[in-house]
Amino acid sequence: AGSRDAADPVKLISTNALMEKLHLKYAQKPWIETLKLVRLCMDKPPRGSISVTPHHPLLSCLEKIQRTLNAKSLSTVMNRLEFLSKQRGLKSHISTNGTACYLTSDMFYVEVQLEKDGKVMDVKLAHPGEAPVVCDDLVQLLRMKNYDAFGKILEGLLNLYQIPGNSDMKAKVYLALQSLEKDLYSMSLLYRTQDGNRVTEVLHGKAGYLVPRTGGTPMNIEYYLSPYQVLEEELNPGSQVCGTKVFVTVGSSNTTHKLPISPLIVDSQAGDGNPAFLPLTDELSMDLSACFFLTFHQPFPMSSSSIQEIQTFTGIPIDGLKLASLHALIVQFTLNDEYKEDLSMNNSCFFVSLFQIAQSTVIS
Hints:
four-stranded antiparallel β-sheet; 12 helices; globular; disordered N terminus; disordered C terminus; activator; nucleus
């Protein structure tokens, strides 16, 4: 053991002493030089590895530096965008004038236009066969420097194309999603009131209150409001109490499904008030290794018996299930963001303030 320690001089230095030497070495260097050094190391993967994994120490170090810089100049914003693209497996390049950054994949690209001082001017998104469209939601996220939310939207865009097959097959899946979205939107118009009453559409509409896909945010449907939420909305008009929502997405499937590649609703104003659909013929559909999904914004608790009944009735399996005890769900709801999945329920103590409610008797 002594010979091994002698051969490795780093082990002879204590952690505190090593950190002190690093602090002295880089005390006079600005953050931007440290950032360039880390990026240089990132471009040269460690020996024996093909690429840098998302949890690589260098990537973690770069993320901490990026958060410290807070992206206040053009160069730091560009560096932050390049880091996000590398973290999500996207490619990135900067325009010749240095004020536009492109985050690209095989199926889509995001164009970020910046001013000389680093302020975000515009963000555009382009899917296969479509012209670039301005995404106001992405613009707002970058202007607020909410890079975590921006990164999650990039992940959502990537998930649209996590389908087996070539680029042409993935484009067909995206076309199928567009067709479904158009039909759902047509259905939502069947009970849309003139004043656009959201509560009425949620409770009585054909498809609930539907918000079309914008930029990287998928189409979402608000389909349920509790009696308490309805009352709060009536007492405080415009408060926009958020009910239960689902997102309309598409994902890969182990089996092929016949999905539409064109809208199927031909008459949304049929005599009985129900939409009329075209038959799912070979001309209007295609067998794809994909399936439409309704995903919840947050985990939705449901009993195992209810899940079995739904799967038996519809014949469609429910994916992404995770077993949890009622106790764990109550703790998770109570602690909210402070909840950790590895929290030991057996050794945890929780304190609740109890209030005594005075009872009064009315004598008539």
